[in-house]
Amino acid sequence: MPTSPVKTRIPLTSFGHLITEVKRQLFAIEPPASVELTGLRKYFNSYSLQGRRNCVLATYGIMLVTATAFFMHRQNKKEAPKDCTA
Amino acid sequence: MALNFFDQFMSPMFLGFPLMALALTLPWMLFPNPSSRWVNNRLLTLQGWFINRFTQQLLLPINNQGHKWALMFSSLMIFLLSLNMLGLLPYTFTPTTQLSLNMGLAVPFWLATVIIGMRNQPTHSLGHLLPEGTPTPLIPVLIVIETISLFIRPLALGVRLTANLTAGHLLIQLIATAAFVLLPLMPAVALMTMMLLLLLTLLEIAVAMIQAYVFVLLLSLYLQENV
Hints:
The complex is a heterodimer. Chain A is an all-alpha fold. Chain A has 2 helices and no strands. The longest helix of chain A is centred in the last third of the chain and has 37 residues, at 49-85. By secondary structure, chain B is mostly helical. Chain B has one domain. Chain B is built from 7 helices and 2 strands. In chain B, strand 1 (13-14) and strand 2 (17-18) form a beta hairpin. Chain B is globular, with a radius of gyration of 22 Å. Chains A and B meet through helix 1 and helix 2 of A and helix 5, helix 6 and helix 7 of B. Chain B: It catalyses: H(+)(in) = H(+)(out).
């Protein structure tokens, strides 16, 4: 059976390609080549796959640390009045 | 016994025995089994043609790794399609109006796609949570939004199917009741209501087929991301 000649250019599940195309066509912002990214940007950027992965892991890590610190602080606050009354 | 409008959505029972298993097995009993004949009869040929064509179109954008899901997708499609269409018969219970059933289908399939993605290509799966080219200040916000949208997916899948079918069945019952009540009082208005009921029934037939297709299509898209 012949297949349809229409092929979607932008994957339906990825907004990344839409964002890249909008930036390129409306604002003339080209994504930087990998050699142009230096320092921290080399590992944390939104262009390369590894950069995006590192950003996601860093965000999750920061959120986890913040939540842990918050709950431990709350536990300490609960225990402190109990020690005062005892 | 006067039925209220929501009795059609109650799980069927007979003398205290739940008939849900029978309701779920009915589509399987209606479809003919493939035979070993070289040339089958018309019904079997049509069934085979439909399943092959549907599976081919669905798996077109998915790479070879995802083709292992062909049987799962085709059987899910046939199952949902037949349940939805059979439910349009009068006084027939529609299992896909039950949120428990739809969530029981949506959550394991979605979770399977996520686990496959995290296990086989974790970098790719995690990279999907941040769209390419996102401006730097928006990165944390977009990661949180994409994570929320990831976890909302199974909920949306299940609720979409439930809500569409429940709303359709309820509307049919409401308009049919209105037409029946108006018949002795205002026959002309009752006739117009019946025309509306006919159009609504045609719409519900379309919705039944489309919702089954959308369920399977979205699952295939989630698989495409992770495979």
